[in-house]
Design a protein that fits this description.
15% of the residues lie in helices and 62% in strands. The chain is mainly β. The chain folds into two domains: 28-150, Immunoglobulins (Immunoglobulin-like), CATH 2.60.40; 156-280, Sandwich (Immunoglobulin-like), CATH 2.60.40.1820. The radius of gyration is 32 Å and the shape is rod-shaped.
Length: 281
């Protein structure tokens, strides 16, 4: 019986020795940059997700309690903040820590006006994670990464002229041309584009094109739309065309779902356009 009691007394003592030995061997976790993905991007904003791999080599669990970050654009601070985190990393386990960064392009261009003439910008992300580690307390681990991102620019729409297939005093069969310029270094596409064209206050075109139209990087494309117009729709412009000399005021407006061939960009943004001008031929 005494022997049994002695063993019972030794059990918590031995367990305590094991715990103390474990705490004596506690180390800082290791942290490495893993990846940056573009969660979403359009002509207004971008949401970036930075991922970091953390390894806990210890026989006890640790907690990532918070992080702070400073997002720099062309070596100048643009966004910064601190965020509470409550991620537990088990003993001898690895985990992924995420840092989301949301950018408003209007704020970016207002702060860095030089980007108005640029296709992209360089960024740096300086991050520091705080880990609660048993035995050695709070540990701060800094880490940084860098890269570049495009600055999406809105395509330009314009009335690009016309060609005549048939014309008479009763009207004309024509092909109207809508010019679309893509100022970006990546291709874009238009889907479900609606065009309304008025000439000297008279409606010449009101249509929706369901098929996608692709415009290559740094390129211009013309969308050709056939129309049949009567004399009432064309007004005095009809007789000017028959004489071979044309000058008129036009208004082109509409909208289109715009997509781009870059990560995170989809057809979710509906882009409005409105262009007035004078056409002379």
């Amino acid at each position: 019986m005494r022997k049994f009691l002695s063993i019972l007394v030794l059990v918590p003592f031995l367990a305590g020795c094991t715990t103390l030995r474990d705490l004596a061997n506690i180390q800082k976790p290791s942290l490495e940059y893993s990846n940056m993905s573009v969660q979403s991007i359009n002509f207004s904003e971008a949401v970036l997700l930075f991922e970091f791999d953390v390894n806990n080599p210890n026989p006890v669990g640790i907690t990532a309690s918070e992080y702070n970050y400073d997002f720099l654009v062309n070596s100048n601070s643009f966004l910064s903040g601190t965020q509470d985190k409550n991620v537990n990393i088990g003993a001898g386990r690895e985990s992924v820590l995420q840092v989301p960064v949301a950018l408003k392009f209007s704020e970016l261009l207002n702060t860095f006006s030089s980007l108005l003439r640029s296709d992209a910008f360089d960024y740096d992300l300086n991050t520091e994670f705080v880990f609660d580690v048993p035995g050695i307390g709070a540990q701060r681990l800094p880490i940084n990464t860098s890269g570049s991102l495009p600055v999406p620019k809105i395509p330009r729409f314009e009335f690009a002229g016309y060609s005549i297939d048939r014309i008479s005093a009763s009207g004309a069969d024509m092909e109207l041309k809508i010019g679309v310029t893509n100022p970006n270094r990546f291709p874009i596409s238009l889907l479900n584009a609606e065009y309304v064209l008025e000439v000297n206050g008279r409606e010449w075109l009101n249509t929706t094109l369901r098929d996608a139209v692709r415009i290559s990087a740094d390129d211009r494309s013309e969308i050709v739309i056939p129309v049949q117009l009567n004399a009432s729709q064309m007004g005095s412009v009809l007789f000017d065309m028959m004489r071979g000399s044309t000058e008129f005021d036009y208004s082109l407006e509409g909208n289109a779902n715009v997509g781009a061939e870059i990560e995170g960009f989809s057809f979710t943004q509906n882009l409005l356009f409105d262009r007035d001008g004078k056409f002379q031929r």
